[in-house]
Amino acid sequence: MNQPTTCNRQWDRAERRARAWADRMGLLTTPDEKRRLERMGQGRMAGFVAPRADPAELELLAQWGAFIALVDDSLDRGPGNGSPSHVRALMDSLVSVVDGSATTSDLSIPAVRAIVNLWNRSTPATSPQWARRFAARYRDFADATCEESLLRTRRTPLALSRYVEMRRHTITVLPMLALVERGLSGEESDLESLREATADLVAWTNDLASAERESAEGTDNLVSILARERRCTHHEAAAIARTMISERMDAFDAAAATALAQGPHSAGLSVRVDRIRSFLDGALAWQGETRRNDPEAAGPDAARPAEPERAGNNPPPSGPATGSPGPWQAPTDVPRSIDRLTRHLSLAVSPGGAVTDRCASRVLESALFLALLRAARTHEPQQEQLTLFLRARRVGADPVDALLIDACLHPAETAGRARRAVAELAGQLNRGTGGRGRFKAAMMRAVLHLLCDAPMTDDDLLPSMPPDRITTYTDVNLLAIRVICARATGHPHMVTGAERNRLVDSLGTGRNRLFWEAGATTHLLALHAVRGFRPGHPVVDDGILRMTLAQNRDGGLPFLDSQDLWLAAVAGLAFLADDRLRPLTGRMGEFVASWQAPDGGWPFASAMSQTDLDTTTRCMEFLQASAPERYASRLRRATRYLEAMAGPDGGFPTWVSSDAPDLDMTAGALLALAPTGRHHALLTRSAGFVLDAQRPDGTFERSWTISESSGILRTLNALHAVPQPSASLAARIAEATARAVSHLTAVQNADGGWGRQNNDSSDVLSTAQAVPVLARHGNHACARRGISYLLAHQDSDGGFTSVPDQTGPRPLPFDFPVLASLHTLPALLTAASLTQDPATPSPCSATHRRIRSSSRTPSTVDWSALD
Question: Considering only CA atoms, which of 393, 397, 405 is closest in space to residue 361?
Answer without folding.
Answer: 393
